[in-house]
Amino acid sequence: MGKLAGKVRKRKSWWRWIIAIVVLAGLAGGAWYYFGRSQAEPAPPTVAVTRGDIQQTVLASGSLEANSVTSVGAQVSGRIETLHVKLGDTVKKGDPIADIDSLDQENAVKSAQAALANMKAQRLGKLADQTQAQQTLTRTEQLLKQNLKSQADYDSAKAAVDAAAASLAALDAQISQAELAVDSANLNLSRTKITSPVDGTVVAVLVSEGQNISSAQNSPTIVKVADLDTMVIKAQISEADVTRVQPGQKAYFTILGEPNNQIEATLRSIEPAPDAISTADSGISSSDNAIYYNGRFEVKNSDHKLRIAMTAKITIVLQDAPDALLLPSSVLGTANRQGKYFVRVLDPKTEEVTPHEVTVGINNNINAQITGGLNEGDLVVATGVSGLARQSGTNTTGGRFRGPPSPFGL
């Protein structure tokens, strides 16, 4: 029995040694795996805080229009005898545009002048009649005092004077009408010489020489003259953005021909109603489409490089911060319930990672303006901050986590 008990004790001792060796080996392997792998891990990915310009903007699209377009028409009928301009010509106010065959208008002037002359000649005759009637009345009045004429003779002479005066007054009125007819005929004659009412550029020529035009129904358009020194962009602004824009704000735009050239403009006005407005009682037609309001932008165009109907992509500047501290918006993660952001900053010398509370100004969802909590050149860990508060002193990237994790509250 003693020998058997000794053998059992030896076996137990042997197994204890085996278990101890296995445990030590496991501990050694775990330590190597943890510390060796941790030391071999690369530094966490980081993004440096830089300086640059940042803007918060609203985008819109539209087309270019002339500041004003004047339709130059004809107010008299006739044949286009001479056309003095062609498409693209620059004209000044008063420059000749076209001449209409004026024969009918010249004849109308002559006819009106002849009618006026006839009226004036008739007036001379009526004036002579009035003078004679007045003389007769004077003699009759003298003879009546001498009882050589009766009262009836006097009354008849006075009636003749009054009738001559009335005829003369009626003729004077007819002469005034004849003079107006002459003025009207001369005006129509002058209208056969069409001139530009404004300075500008001829952007449309709608007639040709030899063409007959009629002004019976409306005033036919000869040419269109546009002011191209200042252009207007009519751009559609969505209802989601229109409350954030207001007249006077800076803007810039690009055209298809020069997509890299930003041209400055100014928001001049915003139309109070969308294009969808109708004459219905409700005021706005029912539609499932998005609502857009037209904003009108003004831009100088002294070189006339910008042309009517060009497509423009507008950027309206809501906020602008030049030379600001910038950090990619994605690095910030999501603000907590207090609206605060927390990031992790890596010290490249000690490889320690510490949390920083930062304040943010402009955030255009691409970059964010850092107004406090970071300095230029700081290396911000590019990984998300979720789970940071659950760490208990050691981060997963090899650097030691310094400071209490409680500010994250995540």
TrEMBL record:
Q: Where is the Multidrug resistance protein MdtA-like C-terminal permuted SH3 domain?
A: 323-384
Where mainly found?
A: membrane
What GO terms fall under cellular component here? cell envelope; efflux pump complex; extrinsic component of membrane; macrolide transmembrane transporter complex
Give the transmembrane region(s). Answer: 14-35
The record's section on Gene3D superfamilies has: 2.40.30.170, 2.40.420.20, 2.40.50.100, 6.10.140.1990
> Domain of life here?
Bacteria
The keyword Cell membrane is assigned to this record: yes
Q: Has keyword DNA-binding? A: no
Gene Ontology MF term list = efflux transmembrane transporter activity
Provide the residue span(s) of the region labelled Disordered.
391-410
Task: Show where the Multidrug resistance protein MdtA-like alpha-helical hairpin domain sits.
Answer: 116-190
Pfam families per UniProt? Beta-barrel_RND, BSH_RND, HH_MFP_RND, RND-MFP_C
> Which family is annotated?
Belongs to the membrane fusion protein (MFP) (TC 8.A.1) family.
What is this protein called in UniProt?
Efflux RND transporter periplasmic adaptor subunit
- Which lineage? Bacteria, Pseudomonadati, Pseudomonadota, Alphaproteobacteria, Hyphomicrobiales
